Amino acid sequence: MKPAVLSLPSAGQQKTDTSKEALMHDRGAPGFPNGWYAVGWSKDLGVGDVQRIRYFDNEMVLFRTRSGQARVLDAYCPHLGAHLAEGGRVQGESVRCPFHGWEYDGESGSCSKIPYCARIPARARVRAWQVRELNHMIFIWHHAEDKEPTWEIPPVAHYDNPDWSPVRTFDIEVPVHLQDMAENNLDPVHFEYVHKMTGTPDTEISFDDDGRVLHAVSYSTQETPLGNFDMQLVRETWGLGLATVESSGIPGVGLYMFTSTTPIDRDNTISRWALTTTNNAVDIAGEEWMENITRGVFDDFRIWKNKIHRAEPVFCEADTLLVEFRRWAKQFYSPTNEAS
């Protein structure tokens, strides 16, 4: 019997994988930038709740201890690999593995108890993520080199102010890299073509002294239920994952949004928004503003869903803000995840 022969296509017949996934990886979709990222809403995690979450291409368990602390650990038990969120339960300040009852402290990740063994192996531990809870969200710190946090999440005073409306929450999952979503803030031309504005808004940017926080202001004339006003759209961005948006220009009226955008993996992202307006405007302009700003993201959705990340885009001389954004964004990547 003759041996089977595998016939390979010639060089001219080789097929190229043109799928979005292949292009994203071939053309340099970056890894995960360092910083604080929301992994859930505070309102959705009660005492004793255990939730399965996945961010940074990593399985985790989110739970609230009996004392009310939100905790996040890596998901897989080092004993025999059970997922701590699939049948696990809170025990005091720990989460108990559903397989053999091993308990892991929420703050340290160390095994605090093995119900049938007095001696706990030194390697019985899982990664514990640093957690902060404020602005109606639960955040974790991500750093590719496991470095400690170098800055804190800014608290939003409006959320505790009785003159401002109760927070409206919104979230959306998009099949695009985190940086491509963040880049929209410094892309004024897209407002004309994607969001159908009558022109490209004038936009100015500046940076804090240490260069980490980016400030952007766009100017436009807007028609509102209260009349036409010269408006300012003010954005502040802390890293690639946290931002605020404030619309000003109507005397005595405040319109405000805090956002956290978190990578699920390199190609998928979830964005959470917490919106509020001053009570004196919520029935006149506030509801319309919140509806319009959340509806506007769906204009971008088709673009995001079908685009690839260009690590080395071809810019024109009018793309100065995008060039500045790319330069600023580099500081949040470690060499380990830039290489990826």
What does this structure look like?
The protein is an alpha+beta fold. It has two domains: 35-142, Rieske Iron-sulfur Protein (3-layer Sandwich); 157-338, Alpha-Beta Complex (Naphthalene 1,2-dioxygenase Alpha Subunit, Chain A, domain 1), CATH 3.90.380.10. 17% of the residues lie in helices and 34% in strands. It has helices at residues 20-26, 178-182, 188-193, 282-306, 320-329, 335-338, and strands at 35-41, 50-55, 58-64, 70-74, 89-91, 94-96, 103-105, 111-113, 128-129, 131-134, 137-142, 168-174, 202-207, 213-224, 227-238, 242-248, 255-265, 268-277. The strands form four sheets. It has a seven-stranded antiparallel sheet. It has a four-stranded antiparallel sheet with strand order 2-3-4-9, with no helix packed on it. β5 and β6 (94-96) form a beta hairpin. The radius of gyration is 24 Å and the shape is globular.
SSE order and pairing:
Layout: H1 20-26, E1 35-41, E2 50-55, E3 58-64, E4 70-74, E5 89-91, E6 94-96, E7 103-105, E8 111-113, E9 128-129, E10 131-134, E11 137-142, E12 168-174, H2 178-182, H3 188-193, E13 202-207, E14 213-224, E15 227-238, E16 242-248, E17 255-265, E18 268-277, H4 282-306, H5 320-329, H6 335-338
Antiparallel strand pairs: 1-11, 2-3, 3-4, 4-9, 5-6, 6-7, 7-8, 10-11, 12-18, 13-14, 14-15, 15-16, 16-17, 17-18
